[in-house]
Amino acid sequence: MRIFIVGAGSLGMMYGLRLARGGARITFVTRSVEQASLIAGKGGKLVEDGEEFVVVAKAVSMSDGMALAEDELPGAGDWIWITVKQAHLTDELLASVSSLSARGAAVLCLQNGIGHLPRIAAALPAGTLIVPAISTEGALRESPDIVRYTGRGTLMFGPLRPGKTNAEEEEITQKMLVSVLEEAGITAELSNQMENRIYEKLLINAVINPLTAIFGVKNGELPLHPSRLRLMSALFMESRAILARSGLNEEYGSWEKVLAVCEATAANESSMLRDVQSGRATEIDWINGGIAGLAREAGIPSPLNDAVAAMVRALH
Amino acid sequence: MRIFIVGAGSLGMMYGLRLARGGARITFVTRSVEQASLIAGKGGKLVEDGEEFVVVAKAVSMSDGMALAEDELPGAGDWIWITVKQAHLTDELLASVSSLSARGAAVLCLQNGIGHLPRIAAALPAGTLIVPAISTEGALRESPDIVRYTGRGTLMFGPLRPGKTNAEEEEITQKMLVSVLEEAGITAELSNQMENRIYEKLLINAVINPLTAIFGVKNGELPLHPSRLRLMSALFMESRAILARSGLNEEYGSWEKVLAVCEATAANESSMLRDVQSGRATEIDWINGGIAGLAREAGIPSPLNDAVAAMVRALH
Fold first, then answer.
1. Contacts of B213 in chain A (CB under 8 A)
2. Which of A160, A177, A217, B35 has CB atoms 3.0–4.6 Å from B30's, for a disulfide?
3. What is the mean pLDDT of chain A?
4. Which chain B residue shows the shortest CA-CA distance from A316?
5. What local confidence, expressed as pLDDT, does residue B201 receive?
6. 3-state class of B52 per DSSP?
7. Cβ of A314 and B308 within 8 Å?
């Protein structure tokens, strides 16, 4: 099994280097030519618990990806991981992934928010196995060839709609990936509840991310002020109701869990707050914008998701 | 000239008692029977610069208003001041004001925000002189019969659309009111730019009020944090553009003025913050909601006004 990591950002680098260190056959497919030549030249550096590991792996840039020899290209049984942010999931990138997956490789999608899976499915060859994934691990890319592994967690993936895939063969492909991950010391879980897990993560992000960005506070500070807590609660209730209409099971996504995440990540700045502070585009369109989209499909209003989305866009 | 003050809240009480102390013929028309009997019984108390003045004035409750003797009712040359908040401007209240104004009294409207003038005009007898007013004075009602005069300012009023009134007689009625006000030591200004002034006040309120309520800060603290300042600026620009489309003259409503008001009232909590903290309904529907309404009429979007309105409503 070969694994092609498309987009060597923080998560892609962290998983790719940990897998390569564990003996897996990794090819990074980077967006820039510079990053590919850096990693291909002297390896990527993984910083973990204060230790540094230089890991050698293949790397090509997206524009050079098609220049790989026939036998270096992914085929049946191989995996392509799309680890770029939704904002970088352009038609051009999807066209490259489509070419890469033409010989039957499966595709794992590690985006935050929602909205990407239908787009990816529409762009890839019919019959491609596409599985959504959620990571609770932490990573911070310090430079194009250095990534810091900042928080242990789990990589979960599985079919989006269990029972609708063509079954046994696809299940084996996914179980093989779990065993390759575990060999590399990565905790992985094959889930048949991915929609619930995606919605639950979306719900937590939809409350914490925009409000920490608007109020300019760390996750732990968010619930400490009465009007912030009231807005969290109102945004949670609106979002929970919309996600429930769209299929979120009632055992997922509790208010207590949102507060527990604020507490567990108290000293962290949310990615949205960091993006706003750095003047980068945020993921708002796929988080609260994604929930607003589900609301529109269901014909129900989403005033608070619209509100925080408008305010975060104004902060860019 | 007799002046009937409908709604003895902070502004109504402050003006009514100052006018009565100055010799004007005042009748309070209160919403509650209790307040009317308190004021009619032992007078209202005006607290000004540490001094207390007990002022005797007529007072009837709205439900008893029609029980006034024929010669106690307002007629041509008299004024009815509507000083209730927009939330209290019910159909029932407008019906009472309509009866009171049936004999030709003029009507002065002291509401914040916009949206009330067409409603009032539709409810009152055709041909009634209706003038909008803006006060920059401060008042705090401490109990149903005690009001504190907290900040000196000006009462401005005038025809909403100059030239569209039936001219001379109405101008005399308004000038008479100015002289009665000045006799009582109240600084008054007859303006033929009321629409601009209303829009300018609306613009300032639309930026400061919802954001101080959302962030839970005093006026002076609002611009001190980068994301708050960015949201102020974005909300100002959106609102300014909508008001300009609706007729705001470009010499009114500058960004510097918004910042100057924050500074001049640095230690104050905005009325919207106080309302939110006390669990009272806010004036959001007539401030940012009013601007959103103008945007809809003009067929342009108002995402940030919609956003802060949704968030303030969630804080109630």
1. 227
2. B35
3. 94
4. B230
5. 95
6. strand
7. no
Contacts of A235 in chain B (CB under 8 A): 314
3-state secondary structure of B313: helix
Mean pLDDT to the nearest integer, A60-66:
83
Whole-number Å distance between alpha carbons of B308 and A213: 15
Mutant choice from A227, A275, A304 vs B, greatest count of B C-beta within 10 A: A227
For the stretch A85-132, pLDDT in tens is: 999 999 999 999 999 999 999 999 999 999 999 999 999 999 999 999
Q: Which two tokens stand for residue A144?
A: 């194009």
Give chain A positions within 8 Å (CB) of B214. Answer: 227, 231
Please indicate whether, in this complex, the C-beta atoms of B314 and A225 are within 8 angstroms of each other: no
Given the candidates 3.40.50.720, 3.30.540.10, 3.20.20.30, 3.30.565.10, the CATH classification of the domain at B2-190 is 3.40.50.720
Interface of B with A (CB under 8 A): 213-216, 225-228, 230-231, 234-235, 276, 303-304, 306-311, 313-315
Q: pLDDT confidence of B80, banded at 50, 70, 90? A: very high
What are the sequence ranges of the domains in chain A? 2-190, 194-315
Shared fold status for B2-190 and B194-315: no
Rg (CA), chain A: 19
Sheet of B2-6: strands edge to edge? Answer: B58-61, B25-30, B2-6, B79-82, B106-109, B130-135, B155-157, B188-190
Q: For residue B308, list chain A residues with Cβ-Cβ distance below 8 A.
A: 307, 311
According to the 3-state scheme, what is the secondary structure of A21-45? HCCCEEEEEECCHHHHHHHHHHCEE
Q: Is the ipTM of this complex over 0.90?
A: no
Q: Considering only CB atoms, which residues of chain A are within 8 Å of chain B?
A: 213-216, 225-228, 230-231, 234-235, 276, 303-304, 306-311, 313-315
CB–CB contact A310 B311 (8 Å): no
Q: To probe the interface with B, which of A238, A277, A278, A311 has the most B CB atoms within 10 Å?
A: A311
| Cβ contact, residue pair B231, A315, below 8 Å | yes
Per CATH, the homologous superfamily of domain B194-315 is N-(1-d-carboxylethyl)-l-norvaline Dehydrogenase; domain 2 (1.10.1040.10)
pLDDT of amino acid A163: 54
- Rounded Cα–Cα distance for residues A167 and A187 (Å): 24
CB contact under 8 A, B311 and A276: no
pLDDT confidence of residue B194: 95
- A contacts of B309 (beta carbons < 8 Å): 307
pLDDT of residue A63: 85
Per-residue pLDDT at B71: 87
CA distance A118 to chain B (A): 27
Q: Tell me which H or E stretch contains B241.
A: helix B226-245
